[in-house]
Amino acid sequence: MARNVERRAALADAGLRVLAATGARGLTHRAVDAEAGVPLGTASNYFRSRDALLGALGERIMERFAPDEGTLAELGAREPSLDLFTDYVRYIVERTTAQPELTRALIELRLEAVRRPELARILGDTLRRGYRDDVAFHVAAGLPGGAFEVALLHYALDGLLLDLLTTSIDAGFDPDEVVSALVSRLVARA
């Protein structure tokens, strides 16, 4: 298997562009090669199967969604509180809506995983690792609530992002107000 980390990331980014433009059906190794401007067969050297390619896209999405260390340090300097937790969640929404194609690609991958057991395993591992990391961060930061509340917020934010970045119910509520209500109602009693 090819080991060039930069090339792997560039291929995954090309794959994300293909996925955003054509959906999962249009995502092939050849399409990724063409989008990346590399010789045919390059993507297959890095991602041996379609499921490996799709799974790598999920991992790349998470890498690209990684928070800015400066912003985390700024937030982390504050006292743990419900308001701080709300600001962390606002920052998640800000990051995921600033790159809507990545969030849509993740939604697409999750739907594709329903039909592809190997992708479900690969992507599921990535998502569960992210959840565990979120819980560990939450606990280390001394924020109110615990694993259950973090899970509740994952479920709620997935729905909010789906509505913000796809066909919306258009209920007319400000996303910032929604985030505040979600955090206060799901976490305040913890």
Automatic annotation (TrEMBL):
<dbReference type="GO" id="GO:0003677">
    <property type="term" value="F:DNA binding"/>
</dbReference>
<dbReference type="Pfam" id="PF17940">
    <property type="entry name" value="TetR_C_31"/>
</dbReference>
<dbReference type="InterPro" id="IPR001647">
    <property type="entry name" value="HTH_TetR"/>
</dbReference>
<dbReference type="Pfam" id="PF00440">
    <property type="entry name" value="TetR_N"/>
</dbReference>
<feature type="domain" description="HTH tetR-type">
    <location>
        <begin position="5"/>
        <end position="65"/>
    </location>
</feature>
<keyword id="KW-0238">DNA-binding</keyword>
<protein>
    <submittedName>
        <fullName>TetR family transcriptional regulator</fullName>
    </submittedName>
</protein>
<dbReference type="InterPro" id="IPR009057">
    <property type="entry name" value="Homeodomain-like_sf"/>
</dbReference>
<dbReference type="InterPro" id="IPR041583">
    <property type="entry name" value="TetR_C_31"/>
</dbReference>
<feature type="DNA-binding region" description="H-T-H motif">
    <location>
        <begin position="28"/>
        <end position="47"/>
    </location>
</feature>
